[in-house]
Amino acid sequence: MSPTTDPRVDRRLRYLSAADVVAAMPPLDVRLRLAEQTMVALVADAELPPKIGVHPRPDGSFAHAMPAHLRGADPAGNDDLLGMKWIAGFPGNRARQLPAIHGLVILADPLTGVPVALLDAGPITAERTAAVSGVAIARFAPVVTARPLRAALIGAGVQGRSHLPVLGHVLPGVELAIFDRHLDRARELAAEAGAIEGIAEATVSATARDAIQSADVVVTAASFGPVRQVMTPDWLTPDALVVPIDYATYCSAAVARDAALFLVDQREQFLANRDAGLFDDYPDPAATIGEAIVAGTARPVVGRVVVSHLGVGLADLVFGNAILRRAEEMGLGQTLEG
Predict the structure, then answer these.
(1) How many other C-beta atoms can be found within 10 angstroms of the C-beta atom of residue 5?
(2) What does the pLDDT read at residue 12?
(3) Which residue has the higher pLDDT, 140 or 338?
(4) Could you give the CA distance from residue 204 to residue 208 in angstroms, rounded to a whole number?
(5) Can you tell me the distance from the alpha carbon of 84 to that of 119, in angstroms, rounded to the nearest whole number?
(6) What is the distance between the alpha carbons of residues 231 and 124, in angstroms, rounded to a whole number?
(7) Handedness of CA 3, 19, 23, 94 (dihedral sign)
(8) If we measure between CA atoms, which residue out of 296, 293, 275 comes closest to residue 284?
């Protein structure tokens, strides 16, 4: 950052719209590295609480504050990251022709607290979530020989769409089955998947169980709803990797209990949500994703692996910072006077 834009002497704030964020999004291989760095940083170098949430009147609505701090390598703190994501979900918005999710990422100077950037959180949330899934899949997908690897994607919304390039990248040649309760959305996403590098085939399944029953890798990205924990162990192949990004909407506690390895992105957040009733009867995780990476934990030879990631504010900061740097180089965004 040049002296003229140093936040300690300059109170201007850069605003990046959703289009700016998409334009400055790092390429996929970089996103996967950022996601892995985030998971490892959670082991020792980060401070963040479980999501702080409130629940507005519309059924199923939520608003979360996700502050985070990352300690960098510089003892003086110049390369630290400080900020917060504000994210609000209102499922009823679809009936009003409005997006169901709205959010902002705020980046601040780590030594003064001066806000330096405000970014639309929508594209960041989608891409950082898919990248964390990619890290889990690359490390813990079962080894398959003599046939193509099969994956199931449950949910054809924004998160489902963001997972397509990741699945093609980390599982080249994958045969993908897609289910969504809205058949037209599933068909649309399958058509898009057919053009994604690395996806050999994409089909639409009539039910979630049909999609899952022969899959080696299962990603559940369904909308939150009153019906939960519907996917039981008998739906799954014996050595499947299950990556739920929809809390316990699909993945039942029995699947996690029976797994040979059960990981989460952040232990404290998972336990807080279990205490709140969102993961009833789930076991304690064996480790976090970052702890498994640091320890070099291998995929068990036999048995299922479940990697549940709830989303952490640190990932939004790490991705937001990388996007901000690229946006500055590309001349994107608007400058707001402080």
Answers:
(1) 13
(2) 87
(3) 140
(4) 10
(5) 11
(6) 28
(7) positive
(8) 275
> In the prediction, which pLDDT does 3 show?
45
Q: Give the residue among 244, 79, 92, 88 at the shortest CA–CA distance from 153.
A: 244
Return all residues near 251 (Cβ < 8 A) that are at least 6 apart: 220, 229, 231, 242, 244, 306, 308
Do residues 294 and 43 touch, judged by C-beta distance below 8 A? yes
Q: Where are the beta strands (DSSP E) in the chain?
A: 13-16, 46-47, 52-54, 62-70, 81-89, 101-108, 115-120, 150-154, 174-179, 199-204, 217-220, 241-244, 261-264, 287-288, 305-308, 334-336
Answer left, alpha or beta for residue 229, where phi above 0 means left and psi between -120 and 50 means alpha.
left
Non-local CB neighbours of 184 within 8 Å, separated by 6+ positions:
none
The residue type found at 192 is E
Helical pair 121-140 and 28-44, crossing angle rounded to 10 deg: 80
Task: Classify residue 57 by burial, with Cβ atoms within 10 Å: 0-12, 13-18, 19+.
Answer: exposed
Let me know if 169 is exposed, middle or buried by CB neighbors in 10 A (0-12, 13-18, 19+). Answer: buried
Residues 171 and 218: their CA atoms lie apart, in Å, by 12
| CB-based contact 169:134 (threshold 8 Å) | yes
From the list 216, 144, 203, 131, the residue with the least C-alpha distance to 170 is: 131
Q: How far apart are CA 38 and CA 45, in angstroms?
A: 10
- pLDDT tens track for 89-139: 998 898 899 988 899 999 999 999 999 999 999 999 999 999 999 999 999
Instruction: Give the CB-side neighbour count of residue 10, counting CA atoms within 13 A.
Output: 14
Residue 115: both structure tokens together: 């806000």
- How far is residue 106's CA from residue 119's CA, in Å, rounded to a whole number? 7
Tokens of 69: 């701090």
DSSP 11: -
